[in-house]
Amino acid sequence: MVKEEPPSTSKDLQELQRRVSLLIASVQSNSKVVAFMKSPVGQYLDRHPFLTLTLLVFAAVSAVPVGFFLLLVVLTSLAAFVGVILLEGLVIAVGGFSLLCVLCGLGFMSLIMSGTIVVSYMVVSSLINYWISPSWYT
Asked: Are 76 and 88 in contact (CB under 8 A)?
């Protein structure tokens, strides 16, 4: 009997795993990351990875709406210097309420996306462990 060689994808996956491990090690050895992880907030987030992932996803998806809101505030402030003070208050109030609605929706989406990411990670890691099992080499 001829031994069947393992597929080249396992070598690629091992190389990818090695590169990701090096990237994670370089991030974890950063002095700012070490200082943050020693803080009470860092320790709490380390004990609650789902909350950490949810906050990370929320921060990523809420950056654009917050940026648009700040642009709106700056532009309406410039308009206030011209003399439209009442309009500025109304626009900022409506914009603030709109931002609140958008951020609540993004918070809900962040929870859903984090759950999806966690489930996908578990499924993919289980499949990879199944595909790259010792039975390939026997």
From this structure: yes
What is the per-residue pLDDT for 12? 83
> Helix H segments across 2-134?
8-28, 31-38, 40-47, 49-82, 85-131
CA atoms of 64 and 47, how far apart (whole Å): 29
Terminal-to-terminal C-alpha distance of the chain: 12
Question: The tokens of 20 are what?
Answer: 């990701």
**Torsion angle (degrees, nearest 10) of CA 104, 106, 112, 116:** -160
Q: How confident is the model at residue 107 (pLDDT cuts 50, 70, 90)?
A: very high
Q: Are 110 and 61 in contact (CB under 8 A)?
A: yes
CA–CA gap between residue 119 and residue 111 (Å, rounded)? 12
- Residue 87: the pLDDT is 73
Q: What's the mean per-residue pLDDT of the chain?
A: 86
Please give the backbone phi and psi of residue 74, each rounded to the nearest 5 degrees, phi first. -65, -45
